[in-house]
Amino acid sequence: QVQLVESGGGSVQPGGSLRLSCGTSVYTYSTPRMAWFRQAPGKEREGVAALSTGNGITFYADSVKGRFTISQADAKDTLYLQMNSLKPEDSAVYYCAADRRPGLSGSSWMLAGAYGYWGQGTQVTVSS
Question: What angle do CA 70, 36, 67 make, to 5 degrees?
């Protein structure tokens, strides 16, 4: 079993920054697939960014490219999402996801079914 615990959410003004953290109960190399998803009220859960922890390849949704950065801690026990230039449309509950299956490719990273473990979510609100 893999446990994921998100933190770092909060309220910020447009243009501001937040860094989300996802603490893992196993080393990230045990979960080759790791990702951040988000879900706004009345909308489907969508993939934001993903990381193949073995080779460091990253994937981003078009809506966050150039603004968000996914990374893992040197200690291999935490996943991060650095969010800059935040917009009101980034407001959502953000979830950390992981899976023990081999790494990611193509557009599969955006599928919720590609991940078997999920955190409880952390709220991000971008508002003036």
Answer: 45
With H, G, I as helix, E, B as strand and everything else as coil, classify residue 15.
coil
- Taking only the tens place, the pLDDT of each residue in 67-110 is 999 999 888 889 999 999 999 999 999 999 999 998 787 788 99
Bridge partners of 69, per DSSP, are: 82
The helix/strand/coil state of 29 is: helix
* Structure token digits, residue 95: 């979830």
* DSSP bridge pairs for 70: 81
Count of other CB atoms within 10 angstroms of residue 104: 25
* pLDDT (0 to 100) of residue 93: 98
